[in-house]
Each structure stands twice: as structure tokens, then as C-alpha cells.
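Late entry, T3D complex.
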Amino acid sequence: MPLILSTLQQHTLTLKLNRPDKANAFNRDMILELRSALDEAEANADVRAILLTGSGATFCAGQDITEMLAAQDQNVSYHEHLRESYNPLVLKIRQIEKPIVAAINGSVAGAGLGVALACDLRIAADNAFFTVGFTGIGLVPDSGVSLLLPALIGLGRATEYSFSNLPISAQDAFAWGMVNRLIPADALLPTAAQIAMMLAMGPVGAFGATKKAFNRAMLPNLAEVLEYEGELQDARRSEEEHKVGVEAFLKKERPSFI
Ligand code: T3D
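Prediction complete; structure with ligand written out below:
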């Protein structure tokens, strides 16, 4: 079963994260498949807009925590993992000179939030939830979340929701500017596809140049921030808080950090 489902219609490539029984959490293979789908989309002149969404009831739960546990056992550096996985993925989403729309069909957390925030537009189902996620397992926001979240909702709210790890409702996300449109859940995909197809019919060269201008104006330090997140994440990796958070998640318990 492919981990990324892809369909091309009216110059719009829909990419669907496809691990619905795992809340579309990213494992290594899914990240690689998404990266190569984006590389192909970038090179294919027939693709003029990209729509990213999730299968089932969740957009994406971020890094697969069971895989993270295996990486712990094998002593794999989180910094190296980020360098090979989410950092190039987030940079690619920002660098592709074509509009990328995220259709957020349910909960989104962790690196899934980073990927959604890196997209150009976010169209969310009215029952979607946005959880920062990282601190819940004793980690630091990565995948660009430490730059993109405060840029979109302000430092105060970004700090509050990173610390509390409480979900942000779609309604608040819309009111705070993190989401461009709210759509009733059953109409999300057709509406988001229509928006992406309209963009595909537009001056895509100018859209690409606009992205470059916004990247330069608002996110000139994105690559450096991704590197720094990796450094911090590596330090968090060996902390007791991370162990406690992961164990609690796997046991479906509330972590006790004291
Ligand atoms: O180097 C590195 O890799 C470091 C990088 C880290 C990047 C990160 O992304 S860290 C953050 C990881 N993600 C999280 O902490 C989020 C954890 N998940 C959640 O908070 C919730 O699952 C959601 C808010 C995303 C969705 O909630 P809900 O109620 O819709 O679904 P659920 O019941 O919690 O999850 C459904 C299933 O997916 C469930 O499995 P089960 O019980 O049906 O067998 C759950 O365990 C599984 N699942 C959810 N998230 C993950 C996951 N399995 C593995 N990894 C997950 N992240």
C-alpha cells in the first residue's frame, strides 16, 4: 500500500498521507515518499498546484512515536534524523514555485503541524484540531514550528499552546490567522480541490515569485532555525522528560514530569 496516494486532475496534484490507522503519523518511508512526490511535482510542468491532505479522520499526528522509540534504542541522533527528513521536506515546500494548499481534514500535531504551516494556504475542516505536540513528549518544536507558528499566531499564543499542549480549535485557528478558510468537514476535500484548481489556472510563475519574496521577507532564517531546532532536539532526546512523555503516550496515560 503506498504511503502517499497521488492523483493529478486539472493540473492539480493531490497528495494524500496514507497511514490512517496510525493517524497518518510520519515514518521514515512516508517522509521519503512525500519528498520524492514533491520533487516530481516540482519538475512536472503539468502540475501547477499541489493539494496535501490526509486519509481518514486525521491530517497527520507528526513523527511516528513508535519509530522514535526504535531510534532511541539504536542511538540514532534526532538532529541527523531531522536533517534527513523534516528539514528538507519543509524547505522543499517553501521552495517549490507552485502553490501548495493543505486541506486539513482532522487533527494535526508535531511535525505534521510544521508541514501544514509550511504550505501556502490552509483550508481546514470545521472539526479539525491543531496540537503543537512536542512538549507533551518532552521535546522542542521542530519542522519549522518554532518559526512558523509564532509568525502566524503571535509569540504569546504560540508559547501558550506549546507549553499547554492543548488543541487549538479550527475556529480559533481561523480567527488567529493560522487557517485561511473553514469548511464543513463533509465539503472539505471538494472545496479545497476547487481552490487549488483555481490557483492552477492562475499565473503560477507570479505565485512562485511571490513565494520567493515572502520567503525572503518573512522566513529568511528558516534553514538556520531548522538546524537549531535539530540541535535542541538532540539535547532533549536524552532527557528523562522525553522518556517519561513517550512511555506515557504509549501507555495512553497522562505523563507525570515531576
Ligand atoms: O528526530 C525526530 O524524529 C524528532 C522529531 C519529532 C517530530 C514530532 O512530530 S514530535 C511529536 C509527535 N506527535 C505527537 O506528540 C502527537 C501524538 N498524537 C496525538 O496527540 C493525537 O494522537 C492526535 C491529536 C494527533 C490525534 O488524536 P485522536 O484522538 O484523533 O487520535 P488517537 O486516538 O490519539 O490516535 C489514533 C491512533 O494513532 C492511535 O493508535 P491505536 O490506539 O488506534 O492503535 C494512536 O496511538 C496512534 N497515533 C497517534 N499519534 C501517533 C500515533 N502512533 C504513532 N505516532 C504518533 N505520533
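The CA atoms of residues 133 and 165 lie 6 Å apart. Will revisit in the morning.
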